[in-house]
Amino acid sequence: QVQLVETGGGLVQAGGSLRISCIASGRTSDVHATGWFRQAPGKDREFVAAIDWTGSVTDLKSSVRGRFTISRDKLKNTVYLQMDNLKPDDTAVYYCAARSLAATYWGQGTQVTVSS
């Protein structure tokens, strides 16, 4: 089992920055990739960013490239999503997901609200 806790969400003005964190515990050695997803009210959950266990391979949704950066601190078992130049369309609940060979684990989510 892997447990995930997201922190760092909040309210920010358009153009501002926010960094959210995903702290993993449990069988973290089984995790080979970690990602961020988001879900806005009335919309489906969508992929935002992902990083592999080495931290050297990353992927980003096209609409956030150049504004968002995903990174990891292996010693802290933490994955970060640095979000710059935020837009009102980025408003959503952001979820962390960790994938092992056996399962995908989800956190409880953290709210990010961008005001115009």
Largest sheet: 7 strands, mixed
What low-confidence regions span 5 or more consecutive residues with pLDDT below 50?
none
Overall pLDDT confidence: 95
Large-scale geometry: globular
State the total count of DSSP E strands: 11
Helical residue percent band: under 10%
- Structural class by helix and strand composition: mainly beta
CA-based gyration radius: 13 Å
Order of helices and strands: EEEEEEEEEEE
Counting DSSP H or I runs of 4 or more residues, the number of helices is: 0
What brief labels describe this structure?
single chain, 116 residues, mainly beta, four-stranded antiparallel β-sheet, globular
What does this structure look like?
By secondary structure, the protein is mainly beta. The chain is 0% helix and 56% strand. Strands 2, 4, 5, 6, 9, 10 and 11 form a seven-stranded mixed beta sheet that branches. Strands 1-3-8-7 form a four-stranded antiparallel beta sheet, with no helix packed on it. A hairpin with a 5-residue loop joins strand 5 and strand 6. The N and C termini lie far apart (40 Å).
Helices and strands in order:
Elements: E1 2-7, E2 10-13, E3 18-26, E4 33-39, E5 46-52, E6 58-60, E7 68-73, E8 78-83, E9 92-99, E10 104-106, E11 110-115
Parallel strand pairs: 2-11
Antiparallel strand pairs: 1-3, 3-8, 4-5, 4-9, 5-6, 7-8, 9-10, 9-11
Nutshell version of this structure?
The protein is mainly beta and 116 residues long.
